[in-house]
Design brief:
It is a single chain. It is built from eleven helices and twelve strands. With 268 residues, the chain is of the alpha+beta class. The chain folds into three domains: 72 residues, no CATH class; 90 residues, no CATH class; 53 residues, no CATH class. The strands form five sheets. It has a three-stranded antiparallel β-sheet with strand order 1-2-3. A three-stranded antiparallel β-sheet has the order 6-7-8. A two-stranded antiparallel ribbon has the order 4-5. Strand 6 and strand 7 form a beta hairpin. Helix 10 runs antiparallel to helix 11. The longest helix is centred in the C-terminal third of the chain and has 23 residues. The radius of gyration is 32 Å and the shape is elongated. The N and C termini lie far apart (113 Å).
Amino acid sequence: MTTEMITADAGGREIAAMDGGDITGFSQLIDAGNRMVKTGFLPDHIRTGEQFAAIVLVGREMGIPTMRAIRSLQIIKGNVTEKADSQLARFKEAGGRAQFEVLDDSRAVLHLTHPNGDTHTETWTIQDSRKAGLNGGMHQKFPRAMIRSRCITAALKSIGWAGAVGNYDPEELRDSQPVRRASDEDHGRQSPHWQADGAPVEVSPPPPAAAPLDPRVVEIGEFPDHIKAACRNVMRAAMDSGISKSDAIDQAVAHGRELLDTVEAGAE
């Protein structure tokens, strides 16, 4: 017996196949996603049917139903992220146990028991957040909630739970400050920065270095003010006549030197 059914719109057009209450097929997911985007009820990070479909498929791989996946999952810079409370809920659904021994604005201590019987106690403090570069955004507004989330994700990775492999809380990637490594230079180009947990963070390349000043322009700048003004007039007139800027600068420098020599000769 199959649970598959076909949903259709008012005009009888097929919207998507349903199997066990879930949409199947990538093209059907995209179509359903485009329709759901129009409702305005999806999270802000889901703007296209393709994004909807990708998140749903990732959720299926993790055993998360469609609607819970679009509430709990994001893909940030190629990394799958899942809210810490959702990760902890899945851990418990898998048979794990968790209990906070301490939880306040500066410290969290979480004791886990893996479904296979292994145990682990994880401690995360406000100092750990600062060392990891998690200093802004939500960490400033809601320190207890952020410390709790960081403690959960760190604990699940430390105990080796499969559901946390390659998975991050959205705030871990969004609020992290990139940390520079000395070995990240490659032929003068800026390579990706990395977070404290080893996840790459794409950063913009540094602005190009300012070009060195033309030594002729520097020389003009060292002339007395009245000679500088005369040099500017010569350069402007020369460029108006159609010669190149470089030749105009040469004429201005030569004129400035002549005036300076005349001044110095008169002083003698």
